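ERR on first pass: missing label on line 2. Operator R.T. fixed the label and resubmitted. Corrected input:
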Amino acid sequence: AQSVTQLDSHVSVSEGTPVLLRCNYSSSYSPSLFWYVQHPNKGLQLLLKYTSAATLVKGINGFEAEFKKSETSFHLTKPSAHMSDAAEYFCVWGNTGFQKLVFGTGTRLLVSP
Amino acid sequence: EAEVAQSPRYKITEKSQAVAFWCDPISGHATLYWYRQILGQGPELLVQFQDESVVDDSQLPKDRFSAERLKGVDSTLKIQPAELGDSAMYLCASSLRQGKAGELFFGEGSRLTVL
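pass 2 clean. output:
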């Protein structure tokens, strides 16, 4: 079965330092992969998506992710954290043919001043 | 900017009572989803509609849950009777058309607490 594993339930960084949120996927074929962000008491918002084009994907708010097939990873990064980045982040596997999405368990990003 | 509307935002009910949630997707979006998000977990798909037809309801507990999208626009998710384990956030999402995987637009959710 297809799935994604988010390796950290919580990540804490200081404002201005780099962010790394880790995600590994398992799939028998090349997946579509996404990162969504959820701020407290808000709906989820698409940050970026990988759909077999460029392996380095740029998203909104300075985030980017790199698809590495050899490592079955799709880690999310940002060079410099901002206080407003504090939120829950979900790595998501997608079936482009049927729009089926499988969500990871989420990583809560905490940003301290 | 167009948004997915959901109501109510919060609902507290006692077990064995009936509960209903409403969702109005972005205008023109043919595909509508209901997800359940238990605290500390990722969202799980309950039901997916393409226009007024159910595409996937394999994870919907059909003994107590029902969903409809009669005119292919807004949708209602009902739980009857509610159980303690149903306490969760119920998220509605929509997308322009099938095949555009991942480009889902989510509402702010309806948080259910069952006492």
